[in-house]
Amino acid sequence: MAQEKKFKRTLVTTALPYANGPVHIGHLAGVYIPADIYTRYLRLRGEDVILVGGSDEHGVPITIKAQKEGVTPQDIVDRYHKLIKESMEGLGISFDVYSRTTSAIHRRTASDFFTTLYNKGEFIEKTSQQYYDEEADQWLADRYIVGTCPHCGNERAYGDQCESCGTSLNATDLIDPHSAITGNVPVLKETKHWYMPLDKWEPKLREWILEGHKEWRANVYGQCKSWLEGGLQPRAVTRDLNWGIPVPIEGAEGKVLYVWFDAPIGYISNTQELLPDSWERYWKDPESRIIHFIGKDNIVFHCLIFPAMLMAHGGYQLPDNVPANEFLNLEGEKISTSRNWAVWLHEYLADFPGKQDVLRYVLTANAPEAKDNDFTWRDFQARNNNELVAILGNFINRALVLTHKYFGGKVPPRHELADQETTALAEFKDVKETLGRNIETFHFREALKDAMSLARIGNKYLADTEPWKLAKTDMARVETILHVALQIAANLAIAFEPFLPFSAARLRAMLGMDSVNWDKLGDIDILPVGHTIEQPELLFEKIPDEDIDRQMQRLERIKQENIVNNFTPKAVAQPCTFDDFLKLDIRVGTVTACEKVKKADKLLQLTIDDGLKGRTIVSGIAKYYAPEDLVGRQVCFIANFPPRKLKGVESQGMVLSAEDADGRLVVIGPHGAVRPGVQVK
Predict the structure, then answer these.
(1) What's the rounded Cα separation, in Å, for the pair 594 and 614?
(2) Domain 120-236 has CATH 2.170.220.10
(3) Distance separating alpha carbons of residues 131 and 531, to the nearest angstrom
(4) CB 387, CB 540: distance < 8 Å
């Protein structure tokens, strides 16, 4: 049997999506579908559970979007909050409340939370140097600062993260930083902010997570352990920005709450909005549990920072589990909202009307629970046609059509069971325990397999017994076969309710089941003899090649548009003299050996014959060249750059390459063979 219930109630939260764009399949697979499955399962068990979500409507991405479109941040969040909410409802994500962080109740709750911590002396004030754009006359948030990543050499890294190598950065780490607003080199100016001293809470966080929650997913536990072993540092809870919740103390004019501090408090304010008189039962009662569904990029906020905030405030329960997923890719490439490389939920619902459950099924089957996974349109089609149609849909249709054909749509009686019934029923007698345990331990892919195994059992059972042949000679046997088949169908209506709610509801309607109860799963007497079965209709239909071809063509158009639209020749650099050029010692060398740099997917280590003693150069070209492709090749390199360590390897120069319109790097070398060490003039 599934784990014994330990709590009176459960609060399930989902990461708040930024209201600067629509929701895509990566969000769904990582957060919203797993949370919905879990919540629907608990409801089926009759437990007290609420699902809380909302839009994150503050932060720099929203101001950037507004600036690009020439509208206000409020215009942006109003537009996308509505789109996100409606598309979530369209997919059947069963929120009890889906609110927003620009609501009056959230503003009040977040301000009160900050004030409580401020009055308790939980913050420290620090004056620091931060970047300022003098021409734009504004402080630059991390996303408004662009420069070269010191780890991989990507020239388009942001002040908070390099999207090429994934390394978290501080703006001051960037090489040659410049303002994304004006392109100017920013200046450093002093500004005062309030910081959460996370180091103060490190001992309690260590005990709570490393000792108390070893059952958490390996990726979550491992990332928390890594952060804790590296030592937590104070983190600013305010920032200089004109969009957000104003810092509610004197002397903080022009400053707002940092979005990472503001957003998780949205879980609390949204619960208050739903249950103004009883919200504290879910947040403060020790007999309540809190489950945060998030993606892996939010682990540090939900497992370390938000719990530290709750500890500092006092009176709140800490999350019982944070089942974070990894990332979902699209057709082998990282999903990118800026490049439109995504399958957007609202577009899917328009392109595939009535097929919400197909997307839910495929994203659950491919859920990136332990590692990054991939969504492809061909796999989407195959899973629909070969599993939902050919197995689940085929069994249901056969069982109901035969019932109407031979018994006028009434559940026939059951006689003595043959070996085929005994075998089939034995195979699914433990499904309730197995399926329930997998859902409760957040193994949703395995749970979906458990549910589909029931359909496979039913499909095989009808194929083996062939009641359409027996109808000519042994109607009593046919009665038993279809009685058992209909009971399996009723079990499927229960088992698939958390995963495929639209299809499960249609199946219940066909079977005349007014309601479902988890305790009935595994029962072979759900439908009484003589019970009326409604006329069957197809639960699923095959998806033709042309529908998939249309989606693939769309992606190809996007890829080509990105190549064209994203390529803008860089402005000619500031004038330099011939003497400046002569300072660069550019030479030709022959690559004698090449290998990948450990723990760095984008870096290659090249051993180069430079005509002298030889040298090692690390270059961020691993995505475009296999090591063996470069051995024996001649390349141009800058020989007089000072040595610099990249991922522990000392790089003695820089290989020259040209960046094509599609971002591909092409190594530069001479047209004909020359002696290693000759200079480029």
Answers:
(1) 13
(2) yes
(3) 73
(4) no
Tell me the C-alpha distance between 209 and 277, whole Å: 31
The pLDDT value given to residue 601: 87
* Whole-Å CA distances, 248 to 63, 115, 237, 263: 21, 7, 12, 16
User: Which single residue is written with the structure tokens 């957003």?
Assistant: 263
Query: Is 229 a residue whose pLDDT tops 50?
Result: yes
d(CA 7, CA 23): 32
Q: Given this structure, which CATH class describes domain 376-520?
A: mainly alpha
**What is residue 245's DSSP assignment?**
P
Q: Residue 569 in contact with residue 587, Cβ under 8 Å?
A: no
User: How far, in Å, CA of 539 to CA of 322, rounded?
Assistant: 34
Distance, CA of 399 to CA of 2 (rounded, Å): 30
d(CA 475, CA 413): 11
Surface-to-core class of residue 433, CB atoms within 10 Å of its CB (0-12 exposed, 13-18 middle, 19+ buried): middle
pLDDT in tens, 166-197: 677 888 889 999 998 888 999 999 999 999 99
Q: How far apart are CA 322 and CA 294, in angstroms?
A: 7
Tell me the longest C-alpha to C-alpha distance in the chain: 102
- C-alpha R_g of the chain: 30
Q: pLDDT digit string (tens) for 29-86?
A: 999 999 999 999 999 999 999 999 999 999 888 988 898 899 999 999 999 999 999 9
How many Cα neighbours within 13 Å face the side chain of 441?
17
Q: Which CATH superfamily is domain 578-667 in?
A: Nucleic acid-binding proteins (2.40.50.140)
Strands 657-659 and 157-158: unpaired
Rounded to an integer, the average pLDDT of 474-491 is 96
Mean of all residue pLDDT scores within the chain? 93
DSSP string, 351-364: HSTT-HHHHHHHHH
Please compute the mean of the pLDDT values over residues 294-311 and round it to a whole number.
96
Q: pLDDT (tens digit, 9 = 90+) per residue, 101-132?
A: 999 999 999 999 999 999 999 999 999 888 98
Parallel/antiparallel/unpaired status of strands 373-375 and 187-196: unpaired
CA pair distance 675, 639, nearest whole angstrom:
15
Number of continuous H segments (helices) and E segments (strands) in the chain: 25, 25
Helix axes 444-465, 356-365, angle to 10 degrees: 110
The CATH class, in words, for 9-116+261-334 is: alpha beta
- What percent of the chain stands above pLDDT 90? 81
φ, ψ for residue 206, nearest 5 deg? -60, -50
Q: Are 422 and 493 in contact (CB under 8 A)?
A: no
CA triple 203-205-211, angle to 5 deg: 95
Give me the residue spans of the domains in the chain: 9-116+261-334, 120-236, 376-520, 578-667
pLDDT for 358-396, tens place per residue? 999 999 999 999 999 999 999 999 999 999 999 999 999
Across 180-210, b (16+ Cβ under 10 Å) vs e yields bbeeeebeeeebebbbbbbeebbeebbebbe
Do residues 638 and 656 make contact, with C-beta atoms less than 8 angstroms apart? yes
**pTM beyond 0.70:** yes
Report helix, strand or coil for 634.
strand
Distance CA 428, CA 451 (A): 10
Q: What is the DSSP string of 41-75?
A: HHHHTT-EEEEEEEEB--SHHHHHHHHHHTS-HHH
Cβ count within 10 A of residue 248: 16
Give pLDDT, residue 2.
38
Angle between helices 104-119 and 265-274 (to 10 degrees): 130
Contact criterion met (CB below 8 Å) for 592 and 631? yes
Instruction: Confirm if 22 and 59 have CB atoms less than 8 A apart.
Output: no
- Weakest mean pLDDT among 567-571, 647-651, 656-660: 567-571
